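quick one before i forget lol
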Amino acid sequence: MLRLPRYEYHRPRRLDDALQLLDRHGDEARVVAGGTDLIPNMKHRLFEPGHLVALSAVEELQGIRWDDGVLDVGAAVTLDALSRNPEVRRHASALADAARHVAGPQIRNRATLGGNVCLDTRCTYYNQTEFWRTALGFCLKKDGDTCHVTRVGRKCVAAHSADTPPVLMVLDAEVELRSSKGSRAVPVREWFVADGIHNTRLEAGEILTRIRIPIHPATRCSYRKLRQRQAVDFPLLTVAVGADFASDGRVSEIRGVVTGLGSRPRWLTGWDDLVDGSLDDDVVDALAQRAGAQCRPLENMIVDPEWRRAMVPVEVGRALRTLRSAGPAGASLEA
């Protein structure tokens, strides 16, 4: 049986109280919302905080509001609530579907959007019990000095494996952060950094409070997820593509993001010069092949990296074909 380490549990009802607790306990404290990622990691001794600051009772982190063309979502809104919300399904259904495809229903009933945006990176050599890691030799991300994936260098390549951030990126969303020193906003497209140990711009003492998503009627979005089983599993690959369509149906701008391959989501580049206003089969194939050429998965998951690489153009192509027929609110399908 895997047991939790000893800790003190705090359940503030106001955001200011939660921030004071973080300031008081410093590096010994971690915030917990749904706990679907943190608690298993604590059982594996990947984290051993002396204090947990629970956010589930903080009313300021709840609620989904439609405000003058912007979806304003509290960071503590569960993924299940997000996937079912009428405003989200009407204005950003690709985001609702991305939330709906996270793990299984029990997890979605607890996991939050803020937690998904801040999800810890994952690796075959990291997400194991302490006994397993001791037998192999600890890795660069936790307690060791060697990356068992690359076997060289001093850079952790644990993979970003969250479902909702790619959709948030193509929709140009931003996150709001609060600390005792004030607040700031960061676009989700700038939120992640290429560091498998700590891959977000979240700073000590900060809490992610809300996610704001501007909704443009001309924008369509589609989403694909590849995993071994149709439920529970983390993604082997996630694809989100978005495009702005003119009134005559022609594409004025297109963008794509893939994740599950490296320590942060990857923008697909060089697409604009392949799109002349249409998304016919030839253009879709060219975009998919360019995406495949840019992605080189590593052995940070249990599935063969060459197979994962081969699936990039397949899933990107499927996402683009879905995009052609999607309404303004977007659409998604799962592999």
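fyi The mean pLDDT is 94.
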